[in-house]
């Protein structure tokens, strides 16, 4: 845990991406997906959301990095202390996340009781080990295995 800087709202996500690999568009896409899913205003006719995501920050870097980090207050009794959790690291997790997997990981840390609609239904199939889910997972693994670094980042 670390002290919370003043003026920052939580939960807060940072996406650090490699400029040499030209991954800014990918980082912006994930930021848009997270902000859209965890928006501040509920849709008409839907129950209010349990939490909102006030900010996603894009952090340019080099060296083939693509890391999504969540900063959140784990204990409401100590709002001045912030926890950091790496949700996705391209080098550790292998490739890039699917948007639905990233959304699940955010939800699982900050608000596990929150439903994600059709994303949760697909997740249930994958956990059950159904034949269709297995083939889909194998296909995703093949795609991620083809991800390569740019020449500048080797």
- Which of globular, elongated, flat, extended, rod-shaped describes the shape? globular
Total beta-strand segments: 5
Unreliable parts: 125-146
Strand content: 15-25%
Helix/strand structural class = alpha+beta
Number of helices: 5
Largest sheet: 5 strands, mixed
Rounded to the nearest angstrom, the distance between the terminal CA atoms is 33 Å
Structural overview:
The chain is of the alpha+beta class. Helix content is 37%, strand content 21%. It is built from five helices and five strands; from the N terminus they run E-E-H-E-E-E-H-H-H-H. It has a five-stranded mixed beta sheet. A hairpin with an 8-residue loop joins strand 4 (66-72) and strand 5 (81-89). Helix 4 (118-128) crosses helix 5 (131-145). The radius of gyration is 17 Å and the shape is globular. It starts with a strand and ends in a 9-residue tail after the last helix. Residues 125-146 have low confidence and may be disordered.
In short:
With 154 residues, the chain is α+β, with helices and mostly antiparallel strands. The protein has helices at 24-37, 90-94, 99-110, 118-128, 131-145; strands spanning 2-3, 12-18, 55-61, 66-72, 81-89.
List keywords for this structure.
5-stranded mixed beta sheet, 154 residues, single chain, 5 strands, 37% helix, 5 helices, 21% strand, alpha+beta
Task: Please outline the helices and strands.
Layout lengths: L1 E2 L8 E7 L5 H14 L17 E7 L4 E7 L8 E9 H5 L4 H12 L7 H11 L2 H15 L9
Helix pairs in contact: 4-5
């Amino acid at each position: 845990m670390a002290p919370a800087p003043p003026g920052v709202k939580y939960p807060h996500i940072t996406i650090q991406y490699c400029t040499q690999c030209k991954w800014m568009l990918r980082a912006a896409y994930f930021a848009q997906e997270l902000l859209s899913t965890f928006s501040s205003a509920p849709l008409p006719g839907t129950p209010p959301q349990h939490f909102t995501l006030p900010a996603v920050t894009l952090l340019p870097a080099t060296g083939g990095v693509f890391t999504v980090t969540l900063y959140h207050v784990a204990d409401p009794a100590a709002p001045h202390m912030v926890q950091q959790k790496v949700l996705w690291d391209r080098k550790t997790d292998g490739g890039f996340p699917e948007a639905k997997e990233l959304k699940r990981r955010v939800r699982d840390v900050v608000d596990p009781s929150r439903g994600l609609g059709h994303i949760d239904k697909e997740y249930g199939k994958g956990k059950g080990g159904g034949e269709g889910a297995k083939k889909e997972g194998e296909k995703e693994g093949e795609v991620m295995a083809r991800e390569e670094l740019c020449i500048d980042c080797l």
